[in-house]
Amino acid sequence: MSISLSKGQRVDLTKTNPGLTQVVVGLGWDTNKYVGGADFDLDASAFLLYEDGKAKGADDFVFYNNASGGNGSVVHTGDNRTGEGDGDDEQINIDLSKVPASIHRIGITVTIYDYETRKQNFGQVSNAFVRVVDASSNREVLRFDLGEEFSTETAVVFCEFYRHSGEWKFQAVGSGFAGGLVALCRNYGLDAN
Asked: 132-185: per-residue pLDDT in tens?
């Protein structure tokens, strides 16, 4: 049975799921009906973070245009430009057993592409979630529904995976940023330009 988490909650991932090494991180969302004009193009990304909480270079930032990082341990499966349909809108595969030892955290984020031109923000997004699926059995291990607490934010840290005492843990974050991808990159120590 899947564990449903609230903002800020942490859970042992590998300790409570022995043998769990390959996970699919599924991210999904809907857009509110009153929004007119352009499609919403939300983009999932993974930031591979060192002990200081920062990424060091382009290989530590995995997204649709740089689909693999961490020596192939983190792989983005492709860009969904409209968010249409049920279930996961974008997925990131992580092989926890292959993540380089220098990486202590993996931040999973979602940003709104071209939010300035399209005048879009997370206040217009609903039913956003992240879920972790055991890739070997296709069993949903945990889920975090973000709720409707955002307004003007254009980037959100959905969750983080982190190492603790040789095990991987999961934290439901749900932290919003104004300034889109640029603000998010700056937060994680990268220059988005």
From this structure: 999 999 999 999 998 877 888 999 999 999 999 999 999 999 999 999 999 999
CB count within 10 Å of CB 108 equals 24
> Taking the CA of residue 147 as centre, how many other CA atoms within 13 Å lie in the half-sphere pointing to its CB?
12
- The predicted pLDDT at position 33 comes to 61
Q: Are 90 and 79 in contact (CB under 8 A)?
A: yes
| Beta pairing partners, 97 | none
Question: Where does the chain have alpha helices with state H?
Answer: 115-118, 180-187
Where would I find the beta strands (DSSP E) of the chain?
Answer: 3-5, 10-12, 22-31, 42-49, 61-62, 68-69, 74-76, 90-95, 105-112, 125-134, 139-145, 155-164, 167-177
